[in-house]
Amino acid sequence: MNANMYCKLLSILLLAAVQTQIGTCEDSVWPPREFRGVWVATVANIDWPTSRHHTTDQQKTQLLTILDKAKELHFNAIVFQVRPAGDALYNSSVEPWSEYLTGTQGRAPSPYYDPLQFAVEEGHKRGIEVHTWFNPYRARSANTSTSGLASNHMAKRFPDYAYIYGHDLWMDPSAKVVQDQTYTVIMDVVKRYDIDGVHFDDYFYPYPVSGHDFPDTHSYHEYTAGGGHLSLADWRRENVDTLIHRIYNGIKAIKMNVKFGISPFGIWRPDNPPGIHGFDSYSSLYADSKKWLQEGWVDYLAPQLYWKIDPPQQSFTALLDWWLQQSKQHRHVYAGMFAGNTLLKHWPLTEIGSQITESRARSGRLCLGDIQFSMKYFRDNSVGISDYFKQNLYQNPALCPEMSWLTADLPSVPNPSNLTITGHRLTWNKDNSRVIYLWSIYKKRADVWDMLVLLDKDAVTHNVASNGEYAIRGVDRSNRESDPAVVHITDAGGSLIIG
Asked: Which fold has domain 35-401?
């Protein structure tokens, strides 16, 4: 805080006849940052909406229930699936409305609303980041027919590159028109919506169907006929690499603060690290996820570590340690966890708790949080998982980690101004710089600050429950905080400690 701000605050407080002290917060411990995400899947109506035949009001109510539950449990991000299969759960001029939303692809909600806009606005009011989750190549899930697809669906627009594979309809990742379509879709969302991130999961080339190779032979022959020398496998990986790198650069050219994250299959290749057995995503999905992390083509990677800690063949901790070693560009690693295994595989809740404890123990090595699959288990409190998280894991709110490579050239975060104390009520001026995204409120316990609440940017007052030392800080869209303004409240009155 500069000298002018000191003088301004002192003058205001003297006029208000409030005792003023000068102090410092430098020796205090602020709570660690942690990404606490949860996937909200829309494909097959897994998490939301629970029926494609619900009304607009029912869908809004369900989405608010999800966001309220996320806030109650101190999650700070949802990963919201907006493009499950070449469709859109938002108002798009590029792709059709999703059948998972209205029952008929291409039909808008009626009465009209935009689910993504609604999710972003309501999520931000609750201090929750909204990361938009796209599938780059899937054209239809559990259905191989093009019947019922809207005329502007990519499988209808580019039928030469739409393939039946297993039980799904899939687009050819090598086709330039397919890559351009995915790129255009994502950049359109980045431009038009106030989102916090773009997210892919583990679907690149599809999971193999026994006895059937992916039917892109003609595309590969076109490549080799044009002078290409890569093997089929390397060519497929290059196709995916090209799109990943292009999307990362495209996002940053539009909005530097929008994060790009991928949640690949948890095993890159068997025997990495030594002793790990299982599916080879490098050679089967053609996903060189290690390369993307090492090259810095993502802001975070959240490998799907859907195994227990103990089995040596797929050990959660062994794989997490290996992934952390690959972050040569110091990008964040979040552990992808399957909360649903507490219900589906009867895992004890303590297994998930131990995994979060293990990931926190590695916070100094850029393991800075986790993402849970999926929201319905927390919404429904399956096997008591919501109660367990609230009581044992996420007792207090937390800010998402700051990504230093995205914040270097941003303006400074303004301090709370005109802060006054009336009894147990704190009041401050609304930020007019449009830099503030949230206000963070803390209470001091010994030398440690516990976060109490995250408030919307438009908040200008907050009541505290008891006497003690409190701090308020401004937070910007990149999760940077201002210097704290600290107040000490007693029954005799309040005082400001300029930190």
From this structure: TIM Barrel (3.20.20)
